[in-house]
Amino acid sequence: MLSHEAVWKAIDTLAERHQMTASGLARRAGLDPTSFNKSKRLGPDGRLRWPSTESLAKVLEATGASLDEFMSYFPPGARPSLGMPSGAFPPQASSIPLLGFAQAGAGGFFDDGGFPAGQGWDVVDFPVAPSKTNSVYALEVQGDSMLPLYRDGDRLIVEPGAQVRRGDKVVVKTREGEVMAKVLLRQSAKTIELSSLNPAHPNRVFDMSELDWMARIIWASQ
């Protein structure tokens, strides 16, 4: 299973193999020199922060490292599992649907299962196997309601139908048209409790009958 620790360890190892610090690696890739600092690997609230797929692609290009080389720095069993073949991370970019959170509450953008439907979607490239493009999509954060974890302009990659467990970050759409990103605290047959990403916003509790759908956030481009 792909873990937060394994991803950052692979980046650190890549930097060491090229005789650089994590800051030096970020600088060579054209990123903010602090992007890979250990202090940036956790949010202010202690939540895990992951490097974006764009950052990883820039690092590989800057170092000339092959995909196989980068993957070799992951411990056994810790390779990405988004339907990607072994040794293909990140794979050839494919186009997936993109929609802003402000638009997501309007009718006609999703089917009953939370999959993209209708017109009005944009597209964005995302490193996912072509066979997965019909099961994932991106929602673009607008505003500061999800700070400090997600900022305005961040893109959340969502997979409807993926198994959701306690502690997972999810996107939920209510029958009244409200769309929100939260953390699943607990779920019973009748109710669901969600924790807000922004401490300024209260947690929410819904009857299951109040929800249209819930989908797991599998990646965030930050």
From TrEMBL:
DNA-binding in keyword set: yes
Q: Which domain of life is it from?
A: Bacteria
- Positions in coiled-coil regions: none
Segments forming domain Peptidase S24/S26A/S26B/S26C = 97-218
Q: Name one Pfam family in it.
A: Peptidase_S24
Origin organism is: Rhizobium oryzicola
Alphabetically sorted, this entry's keywords are: DNA-binding, Transcription, Transcription regulation
Answer whether the UniProt record assigns the keyword Transcription regulation to this protein.
yes
Q: What is this protein called?
A: Helix-turn-helix transcriptional regulator
| UniProt xrefs under InterPro entries | Lambda_DNA-bd_dom_sf, LexA-like, LexA/Signal_pep-like_sf, Peptidase_S24_S26A/B/C
